[in-house]
Fold this protein.
Amino acid sequence: MPIWLEDVIEQICIASILKDSKTTSGRRLSMILTDNAVEFMVKVHGEKLVHNKQLLSKKDWAERKRVFEQLVNTVLPVTKAALFQQEIIEYHGIRNDLYHGTNPLSVEPRKINCYLDIARKILQLIFDFTMTEEEWKQKTEGIQQTLLLKTEVKGLVNFFDTNDGLAKMQTGLKLKDTDAILLIIYGFQLRTGKALEDTEELEKCLNYSGHMIRRKRLTVNISHLRSANKINKGKNNHRQNERHWQKMMLKKVFYIFHI
């Protein structure tokens, strides 16, 4: 997943958290953050169209993208999200009042919800990226737990319990999908003393950790890890799998992080 897409998803999730904070400043910041995500997505697609010579010259683009209304009126009409063009401009006007106003204004949750829905629709209609409501919920909960985490981080990778009896990891390191899978398997055993039950639990732990892997891709990664003998193929021998995973993960941690 491109870094910009991860960032946009995270912004949308944080905006959802702030919207539900029931505070004036929280709702104001939620609207501002949603608008920032929308503007960023429109610019990303505009840059692609300009690069492919499907829109206008780089010189004209440099001028138009500086003004939000011109940006939206240039990019949106040539996309499947054209029907949201006027709404986005109106929501941006609300954002400007919230951001530049001298009074501590707020905004109704209903309006924020509508703008968040548009942000998700842009991901779907322009970038062909979708997440189910459950995936959005899990991703948002994972980010919220990370934001509220008060435990002092002492190592390169740290593992924590979650409220639903699972586990998550926290690290500032960039991990490949396979490394993240192996680490969360090891971390789950470390925190709970047992093996993960199924792919669904593994997926949730990864989402809580801020390392989302779509189910289809996750299944492929697990298959590759099993073929490489990094995960046991046995489905019922949990004790053997636990010993195997722990042994493999200890080697992995020492190899990757030199600890």
About this structure: The first strand starts at residue 157 and ends at 161. Residues 3-130 form one domain. The two ends are 28 Å apart (CA to CA).
